[in-house]
Amino acid sequence: xxxxxxxxxxxxxxxxxxxxxxxxxxxxxxxxxxxxxxxxxxxxxxxxxxxxxxxxxxxxxxxxxxxxxxxxxxxxxxxxxxxxxxxxxxxxxxxxxxxxxxxxxxxxxxxxxxxxxxxxxxxxxxxxxxxxxxxxxxxxxxxxxxxxxxxxxxxxxxxxxxxxxxxxxxxxxxxxxxxxxxxxxxxxxxxxxxxxxxxxxxxxxxxxxxxxxxxxxxxxxxxxxxxxxxxxxxxxxxxxxxxxxxxxxxxxxxxxxxxxxxxxxxxxxxxxxxxxxxxxxxxxx
Length: 285
What we know:
The protein is α/β, with parallel strands linked by helices. Helix content is about 40%, strand content about 20%. The chain is built from ten helices and twelve strands. It has a four-stranded parallel beta sheet, sandwiched between helices. Strands 3-2-4-5 form a four-stranded parallel beta sheet, with helices on one face. Helix 4 runs parallel beside helix 5, helix 6 packs parallel to helix 7 and helix 8 packs parallel to helix 9. The longest helix has 15 residues.
């Protein structure tokens, strides 16, 4: 039996940067809070809480004089303005790739274009992106986009700018792009899928295709982790999404000769290491 860990498993650039900014602020002796969980991983958030970092839900929860860190998913323009009015030091840990999308939709609207966002409506990254324009449309599937395009709500020559959630799957994005190109005559498309996400997803697909079982490590609230599991299930019959090593069940891997491990962009390296160690013990029993 063998266990293979995907090379791109774990923290991406944006998450690594956000975590480092929180660590630096906490170690400086400042009173630190994050506006929402800095990333979607309860273990990492828990470690920061042990360092004295609080999680606040709204700008109004920020105490003047506090250092408030904007989460990696970003916030809307209105939320940022409310935070600026609180008399706090602000550290913006928004992923630079997400920040770029804020600029794209803001500029597009200023040019008279209607921003269209492909992503999960309730995801904090998507709500933040939508908050950088006054009017937009969000679609979660190609079917939703097509039904809207055919509904007559907007003319087919309406100037449109289309972007996507950074953790969207390449398949979903391409399907939506094909539909938009067929329906709209004045369309600008910006491929805003994070390349690290694309690499991770492609690697997960390749690894799951040659593995008897796959372990996907990450927080269940993490969008990119969920999409990794979805991709792996398209290529492998046995796929297990676990939060940490304690959730591994030895009986699940009976008969498996090759096991692959991948992890979402918000999964700390130490959790991946523990999962690998436990998995190696399971298959060698």
